Amino acid sequence: MRSPPLKIGVIGAGPAGLYFAALAKQLDPLHEVTVWERNAPDDTFGFGVVFSDETLGGIEHADSRIHAEMADSFARWADIDVHHRGEVVTSGGHGFAAMSRVKLLQILQRRAAELGVAVEYRTPAPPLEDLAGFDLVLAADGVNSATRAAQAASFGPSLEQGRSRYIWLGTHLVFDCFKFFIVESEYGAFQVHAYPYSSDRSTFIVETSEAVWRRAGLDRAAQLPPGVSDKASIEFCQELFREQLQGLPLIANNSRWINFVTVRNRCWRHGNTVLMGDAAHTAHFSVGSGTKLAMEDSLALAACLFEQPDVAAALAAYEAERRPVVESTQRAAEASRRWFEELEQYLRQTPLQFAFNLLTRSRRVTYANLQVRDPEFVHRVASEFAGTAAGASSAPPPMFTPLHLRGLELKNRVVVSPMDMYSSCEGLIGDFHLVHLGSKALGGAALVMTEMVCVSPEGRITPGCAGLYAPQHEAAFRRLTDFVHANSESKVGIQLGHSGRKGSTKLMWEGLDQPLASGNWPLLAPSPLQYLPQSQVPREMARVDMDIVSDQFVRAAKMAARAGFDLLELHCAHGYLLASFISPLTNRRQDEYGGSLENRLRYPLEVFTAMRAVWPEPKPMSVRVSATDWAEGGLSPEDSVEVARAFAELGADLVDVSTGQTTPDERPVFGRSYQTPLADRIRNQTGVATMAVGAISSYDDVNSIILAGRADLCALARAHLYDPAWTLHAAAEQDFAVAWPVQFERGSRRPPGARSEPRPRLELIRRRGEDRLHQRWRPALR
After folding, report:
1. What is the phi/psi pair of residue 421, to 5°?
2. H or E element: which one contains 713?
3. Distance of CA 10 to the CA centre of its chain
4. Domain boundaries, position 586
5. What is the count of structural domains for the chain?
6. Between these two residues, 95 and 777, which has the higher pLDDT value?
7. Is position 195 annotated as part of the catalytic site?
8. Catalytic residue among 576, 593, 603, 699, which?
9. pTM flag (> 0.85)
10. pLDDT tens for residues 175-233?
11. Can you point out the beta strands (E) in 255-340?
């Protein structure tokens, strides 16, 4: 649908502005398009820009002239080399192309001029109030957008500054592929992202943490006069990377040490003004190029203008189409950025595992992706991880490698996560629990965890919660463990906890966290703070209360040992009693059990120590923690490392890493495997084994997490509710032979025509957004 010719103003003659201007004139030569650029046409910053095959496909469909000129300038590569600890690990099958940003701008400038776009260089854009006569105003004025700042109340910008410093440089050394260099200096680790972008130059981005940057004295160099500071930094980098540069000098172009800024906006449009490219959004350079996103924006907006009846509808359609794609990219970019910010915690990994970890850091590239791109590389990493003999024809998928915790051997890395069923009577589990957990054990998971089992009647969350405080409870659990051990290779663990201030509530499906209408029992907590305004106010625990509850945990631990459990987990998460001691949001005590993190940990550690003393020494103990409260002033990821370290020093063999549920005011950031980075941090900063949990649903995710060393076990909840035989089916999908219950062996092969595991939904959203750029242009331009 063609709208009437439009008067369009474009602020900024970078790739986004020029490319959109050219596309708009192609769609309708009668559009009047003016571009304002405050710099000269030959002024540019940066070196190379990178494009994926998906983006190039869209560009080729939209304007073959531009694509052909770009293609003549491309430096292409398929390999990624990771240089670490004196070794080079190569992974192939990665299709990217790069070119000079100057060259790209020249191509776009020529094409815009050919099509009749009016570009006014060395001319700031008029004030927005003076552009009232324009039908559309496109703000492509970069990360420091003046347009966005002028209408901040409407756009709602959010600018998040990264924690690393980087400097963007170039070199005349032409690399043969993408290179990651890691240099461990006397000050700490520096890393380089390097790639070729022309026949005679490569980009050379040096990055390091703020602490290392300061230890190296580069903060002092940055305070020197312009020119002198650049020279000092470049000389430092040239010396540090002399070997990698083969003695060649580095090239600067307005280069300085900066922190990456992630730009987000609540809304991209206001009236007839729309943000595009870096003005609307940024994504860390380690997942690609801002130019790539900007040119995809241009494609989408131009197509929406053609397809929609008016500008308002076009801008709404543009944002609706692009926002999911951009936000998916930003999530991946944020994961990648944080990986590089915390790179030093991975330096102890072998070069092979480190390379796999690096390649899968954003969660867009996974174990399965790499198997398609470079099966030989994946085989090498998986073989090293499994300890398979060199040259062996195959290695087990990482999720099917055994794990030892003390005297316990787990056959694989899959855990049935604790899930409250609210189906007990006076704490007593029955046939429902036998079928529920027994079916999961028959389904092949290495470890089946009970729900939180409460250590006293008053410690229950709801009247339907399981307990372990009476002889009949012990007997019922013995029936469960006997079944699991007799009928499967699975092990079974019990999670012990106390509800604290979150107790005496209705069953989940009757009203989550809502107090009982009658029959309430008194609550205990470190401080007299209710969970919800309508919740009971708990009594602040006195020393005698703490002793009683500690004894209840010890009693339950002894009963669990007699009941035949293989692993014991102490619940110190989700705002329940022991977690409430740890979080500053729920612990306001003025005695030795409140205040500092050390004091807030004191009572949970006392309980753990008492339980460890009575739990059989060959059997492992784990602790579930909330690694962040997702709330201002609450427990932070940095705090959680110290929490995990404290439990590990007292004998915890595993930390089960969850998050939140401490306060109803939390603001969690959900997403695929969203809690795994916290398990990763704890594992690689403390050395204690961790269990990742939270939106892990595919065996590809499990393989990727385990092989990268982000966690030692993966706990899945909803996936096991959907498919109790999830682990057996994952083995069948991967053509890996595992023991099935003899009664089920006839079903151990995937039926003909059965569909393999689909790609994660977020990946599909992103791909659909990029594929749309391919499909829509030929009809538009006819």
Report:
1. -105, -15
2. strand 713-716
3. 35
4. 401-488+523-736
5. 2
6. 95
7. no
8. 576
9. yes
10. 999 999 999 999 999 999 999 999 999 999 999 999 999 999 999 877 777 666 678 88
11. 261-265, 269-270, 273-275
